[in-house]
Design brief:
The complex is a heterodimer of chains A (about 170) and B (about 180). Chain A is mainly alpha-helical and about 170 residues long. Chain A has a three-stranded antiparallel β-sheet, with helices on one face. In chain A, helix 1 crosses helix 3. The longest helix of chain A has 27 residues. Chain B has about 180 residues and is mainly α. Chain B has two domains: about 80 residues, Rna Polymerase Sigma Factor, Chain: A (Orthogonal Bundle), CATH 1.10.1740; about 100 residues, Arc Repressor Mutant, subunit A. Classes of the chains: A mainly alpha (about 170), B mainly alpha (about 180). At the A-B interface, helix 1, helix 3 and helix 4 of A face helix 1, helix 2, helix 6, helix 7 and helix 9 of B.
Chain lengths: ~170, ~180
């Protein structure tokens, strides 16, 4: 018997063959002793195994086993701890204070840079068209910094802001 | 939670036994059965009574066992014996067992012998047998659970049964 025939025999035993093929195979068994013997072995093994799974008692007490499950459930359901100051008004205040503090530092740095020379090396201005924007220019370094006092419009920027405080 | 604890108490042995049948390791079976209970709690809303609660939980633990077995297989090299056993055609060389090796055995002894023989199969063959004979799944359901083709399920089941017949006959000879 080839592999295909043997697997077909097994499928017949397990009721997985279409009706027509099952009838045809059953008819052929009467003339095929090899197939009949193999089918008998497969049926014998199947019948021995079915419903004969080893009975096993869990080797832990009810209380101990349950306590571990309960703790795992409680851990899984506990809310994730939030970093301090990220949420609510504290987070908003931080987001406002960071650029303002940075700006103040730049102003101080500009003041220190101009002391003793009498000549301005930097300037601080507010754009008339956008009062929320503060522009600091450092002429000696050739750099311009723009601070925006309002949050960006899209969600990604909000997430990026919060990520700064992680 | 108290009601769930009662369900755990009622079905814990069966769930552990199924995990052990697949993993053949007490510690892993305990851990995976506990993990299954946690998942069962988290998915309680998804249980709609299409099957019994015990069957539903058993499917969860079976999937966890299969995930763990796949991880273990990736980590370890297959044994030479397993490679020989799984190479095509080995089962055709096994002589047909004509005398029933389990005839006359008491139920307790039968279960013990079958359990010993199951322990000697590779995890793929054992899983196919457990899912078909103990879980009573059809070929296509087994294929879905194991993530393989129906043809592969049929081959594995065929090999597992032939190997079991030989192993049970050997155990009878040792009497």
């Amino acid at each position: 018997m080839d592999d295909k025939a043997q697997l077909k025999l097994q499928a017949y035993l397990d009721g997985e063959l279409p009706e027509g093929e099952a009838r045809e195979l059953a008819t052929g068994l009467a003339q095929d002793q090899e197939a009949a013997a193999l089918l008998a072995e497969l049926r014998q093994t199947r019948d021995a195994i079915a419903g004969s799974e080893q009975v096993r008692a869990l080797p832990e007490s009810r209380e101990f086993y349950w306590s571990k499950i309960q703790r795992a459930i409680e851990r899984a359901e506990a809310p994730a701890p939030q970093p301090a100051g990220v949420s609510g008004w504290v987070g908003a205040l931080r987001r406002f204070l960071v650029p303002v503090t940075g700006l103040a530092l730049l102003v101080v740095a500009g003041f220190i840079a101009t002391r003793g020379t009498g000549e301005p090396t930097s300037s601080l201005e507010t754009a008339v068209s956008d009062p929320g924007a503060l522009v600091y220019r450092d002429y000696s370094a050739g750099a311009t910094f723009v601070w925006l006092s309002y949050p960006a419009e899209d969600d990604n920027a909000k997430q990026d802001d919060e990520a700064l405080f992680d | 939670m108290a009601a769930f604890e009662e369900l755990v108490a009622r079905h814990r042995d069966k769930l552990y036994a199924r995990a052990y049948s697949m993993m053949r390791n007490e510690e892993e079976a305990i851990d995976l059965s506990q993990e299954a209970w946690v998942k069962g709690w988290q998915r309680l809303r998804q249980f709609q009574g299409e099957s019994s609660f015990a069957t539903w939980m058993t499917r969860i633990v079976i999937n966890l066992c299969l995930d763990q077995l796949r991880k273990q297989k990736r980590k370890r090299a297959e044994s030479i014996e397993e490679m020989d056993d799984e190479s095509g055609g080995v089962e055709r060389q096994m002589p047909v067992i004509t005398v029933n090796p389990t005839a006359g055995l008491e139920r307790v002894e039968l279960r013990e012998r079958i359990d010993r023989a199951l322990g000697q199969l590779s995890y793929e063959h054992r899983t196919a047998l457990v899912l078909h004979e103990f879980e009573e799944l059809e070929y296509k359901e087994i294929a879905k659970v194991m993530g393989c083709s129906i043809g592969t399920v049929m081959s594995r089941l065929f090999y597992a049964r032939r190997k079991m017949a030989t192993l049970l006959a050997d155990l009878k000879k040792q009497e």
